[in-house]
Design goal:
Elements (H helix, E strand, L loop, with lengths): L1 H20 L2 H25 L6 H30 L7 H27 L11 H23 L4 H25 L17 H29 L5 H32 L8 H17 L12 H4 L1 H21 L14
Length: about 350
C-alpha cells in the first residue's frame, strides 16, 4: 500500500504541475502513472477479496478499477500521439471517451460496488437481487459504449447527441435500479422507508437518491431535445453534475461519515460537519441545476451558478476535516474496534 499511495500521489502532483505549466509531456506522464497505479490496485483488490461471499463484489470492484486503468491508459496514448503529431493536445472527443470510461465504468462502478455490501448502513433490509448485482458491470459497459459511439461514429450532431444522452440514461438507470431494487423505497414495518444508524447520514443518502431521480428526468428531457434536433447542452451539463455532485459525492460523504468512526475507532470530533456537508451539497445541486433556466431567459442566474463549485468543495472539505480529526485523535479517545471493523 505505501508505494501504491506514493505512485498515485505522484500522478496527481504531475497532473497539477502539467496543468499549471501547460506541459503536454507532464500530463502524459501523469496519465501513465495513473494507469499503472490503478492496474496495480486492481490486482490487489482481486487478491484481497477472495472468500466466496465476496466474489460478486470482487468482480464488480476489479472491473471498475480496470475501467479507471483503461481510461488512464487511453489518455496516455491520446496525449502521446498528440505530442508526436505536434498538436497542442488530444482531440476533445477522445478525452470525452476517457471521461465516460472513468466516470461511468470506474467511479460509478466503484460506488455501486461498495453499496452492494454497505447498503445496510442506510436502508433497512437492504438486498440487491443477485441477477441485478451480476448485471451491473454489463449495464455500465453499455453506458460507456454509448458515450464512446457518440464520439466515434460518423454521425451528425443530433444523432451523436442522442447516443450521448442515452449513455447518461443507461448509467443513471443502473444506479437507480440498484438502490430501488435493493429496497430503498420499501416501507419496513414500524420504520421509515430508509433508516440509518444515524439520521445525518440518511439525509445524505436521500439527497443522493433524489439527485439520481432528478438527473434521470432531466436526461429524458435532454434526450427528447436531442432527438428533435434542439440544443441540449445545458440540460446535459446539469445531468452530469447531478450525477457527480448530487449522487456520487453525496454517497461518498454519507459512507465516509459512517465509516470514519469504525475504521479510526474514535467518534466524530465535530458531528455537525455532517450537516455542513449535507446543506452544502444540497445548495450546490440546486444552484448547478438552476443553470437550466439560464437557457430560457434566466441569465441573472449565471452569476450565482458558479457558487455551486465552492459549495461542493466545502462539502468535500467537511469530510476531509472529519477524517483528519479522527486520524489525529489521541490514543485515549479510541475505543476498541468492533468485531466487524
Amino acid at each position: 500500500m505505501p508505494w501504491l499511495v506514493a505512485l498515485l500521489a505522484a500522478a496527481v502532483a504531475l497532473r497539477g504541475a502539467g496543468a499549471w505549466a501547460e506541459s503536454a509531456g507532464t500530463l502524459a506522464g501523469a496519465a501513465a502513472l495513473h494507469a499503472a497505479g490503478f492496474a496495480a490496485f486492481g490486482a490487489w483488490v482481486w487478491r484481497a477479496l477472495d472468500p466466496p461471499p465476496l466474489r460478486v463484489l470482487r468482480r464488480q470492484l476489479v472491473l471498475a478499477t480496470a475501467w479507471l486503468a483503461a481510461a488512464a491508459a487511453l489518455e496516455t496514448v491520446l496525449r502521446s500521439s498528440a505530442i508526436a503529431a505536434g498538436l497542442p493536445g488530444p482531440h476533445p472527443g477522445g478525452l470525452q471517451i476517457v471521461y465516460a470510461m472513468a466516470l461511468f465504468g470506474g467511479v460509478l462502478g466503484w460506488v455501486l460496488g461498495v453499496l452492494l455490501r454497505a447498503g445496510p448502513m442506510f436502508v433497512v433490509d437492504w438486498r440487491v437481487p443477485s441477477v441485478l448485482a451480476r448485471t451491473v458491470p454489463l449495464l455500465l459497459a453499455v453506458a460507456v459504449a454509448l458515450a464512446a459511439l457518440s464520439e466515434l461514429a460518423p454521425l451528425a450532431a443530433a444523432p451523436a447527441s442522442v447516443l450521448a444522452r442515452l449513455g447518461d440514461l443507461a448509467a443513471l438507470a443502473t444506479a437507480l435500479a440498484v438502490i430501488v431494487g435493493a429496497g430503498a423505497l420499501r416501507r419496513a414495518p414500524r420504520a421509515l422507508p430508509m433508516l440509518s444508524r444515524s439520521a445525518a447520514e440518511t439525509r445524505l443518502f436521500r439527497l443522493a437518491l433524489a439527485s439520481a431521480a432528478a438527473a434521470a428526468m432531466l436526461a429524458v428531457a435532454a434526450e427528447g431535445l436531442a432527438a428533435s434536433g434542439q440544443p441540449s447542452r445545458l440540460l446535459a451539463d446539469a445531468v452530469r453534475h447531478l450525477l457527480t455532485i448530487g449522487f456520487l459525492t453525496s454517497i461518498v460523504a454519507a459512507m465516509a461519515f459512517r465509516l470514519i468512526p469504525i475504521l479510526e475507532r474514535t467518534p466524530l470530533r465535530w458531528p455537525s460537519l455532517r450537516l455542513v456537508a449535507f446543506w452544502a451539497l444540497l445548495a450546490a445541486v440546486v444552484l448547478r441545476t438552476s443553470q437550466v433556466a439560464v437557457g430560457v431567459g434566466g441569465r441573472p442566474l449565471a452569476h450565482v451558478v458558479a457558487l455551486s463549485g465552492v459549495l461542493a468543495w466545502l462539502a468535500v472539505a467537511a469530510v476531509a476535516v472529519a477524517l483528519a480529526a479522527a486520524m489525529l485523535a489521541p490514543a485515549g479517545r479510541r475505543a476498541a474496534a468492533p468485531p466487524d471493523a
